Amino acid sequence: MLPFAKVRIAIVGAGFSGLGMAIRLKQAGTEDFLVLDREPEVGGTWWVNTYPGCQCDIPSHLYSFSFAPNPNWSRTYSQQPEIQNYLRECSRRYQLEPKIAFGCEVTAAAWNDESGLWRLETSQGSLRADILIAGAGALALPALPAIEGRREFAGSSFHSARWNHDVDLTGKRVGVIGTGASAIQLVPKLQRKVAALYLFQRTAPWVLPRTDRSITEPERRLYRSVPLAQKLVRAAVYANFESRAVAMTVDTRLLRGYQALARWHMHRQVRDPRLRTKLQPSYLIGCKRILVSNDYYPALARPNVDVVTERIEKMTPRGIITSDGRERGLDALVFATGFEVDSWPTLHFIQGRDGVTLADRWRERGAQAFLGTAVSRFPNFFILLGPGTGLGHNSVVYMIESQIGYVLDCLGMMDARRISTVEVRPEAEAAYDAELQSRLGNTVWASGCASWYLHASGRNPALWPTFTFRYRRQMRRFDPRPYKLRASSPRDASLVPDRGGLDVVV
Ligand code: NAP
To answer: Which one of 337, 393, 397 would you pick to mutate in the ligand 1 pocket, going by the greatest count of ligand atoms within 8 A of its CB?
Structure first.
């Protein structure tokens, strides 16, 4: 049973987005909220993804909340258990646990115009809320490829994001399909324990060296005693990653330097010219997520690894047959094949006006949201890490924090002016999206590769097209002008800010 029947704010997801929102609400003195998460623990993607080698490709000093720094990170790039632990620690430090319903699956969330409330149906009962905040990320539903005979495979098979720890892969013949950010982390770990590893590569990725190292105890002591020192390191890491945006979004010719570095990295680690040819990417670096690893190429160069570049034809009970007619016998198969980004669960259960779901709204052209946060015809609804806020060059936690600040400012305005409903105008949403898409057209992500960033229509519903500090700037204050506002009562209508140009309903 849920602890409340009605809250002011319902937050879906207890990952970085949902926890960050909850912490900042608490810091702002708001207690009337509930976080709902289907998992038994906080962490979101960092709870669910437990594949061997799972870690973050953004350094920990930056991939963490600015308002909850952790001076005790053990490495510059953290492994999944340490990130998960950090989020659990945040939840404890801010006493969030009583505010989170764990194991609580949201099955429906519908806006009711008459009551001006969201009604949520969950596996633990119903909940009404004035405000709904979606903090459930888009990389949630594993994508399993439509390979003929996939279900006939007799060995064990699972997706990277649903790692089956009961299956011991030691000494086995294991196939891995995919060479994205997840595969590059798990392949070196598997290589060490399996008898044979067949890596089925459709597209060779660009891989840069990783500057991972242990953080020494004296460094940690310094961060504990002089928090400013950690802030400075965080700022330096941020500036370093942010500088990538110049090449990715302003002048893509500068990417040649990154390509040269990646080629040098590969040549240094792979001696066999035939393997090098297989591993040579054929698209502009950055068009897909840039991968970083020091142990991926060395693993591929080991004698028990075969990089298979022939197209997968079909699966049999014994293994995989490729386009050259060869069958590789497998005991187990790992799908490191990414996520269904057009169909993540949240899209299907959130219904705005007239029962239309986000999935219905976004089916034709992919997702869009004003400032990546508000959706027309979905009143009092905010989406964290929503459309157009993903990053190909920096830490998404920075984007999440920008959004959280914006939502808080909006909530403060609603309280102060006694506004019951905010709803972005469709024309503001459309104009914002047009501007975003036009900017994205000049970036590396539009340079011609196939990536999960792109919708079938050709739009890029995923990424922010420029420097992240620009996003932070536009999110600094909640400007009510692009919104329709509804006053709590006719008496309160006079409190609605600057009625000139505003569509105020009383
Ligand atoms: P992904 O980047 O979408 O990679 C999926 C891989 O599977 C690609 O190599 C793809 O090939 C391949 N693939 C898909 N269908 C296939 C098929 N039918 N036959 C052969 N190959 C197929 O997925 P991911 O590696 O799970 O990463 C997804 C996102 O999660 C990342 O971009 C990133 O945002 C996030 N992530 C982040 C980290 C981190 O360190 N922060 C770590 C892991 C994941 P093609 O390239 O040819 O499509």
So the answer is: 337
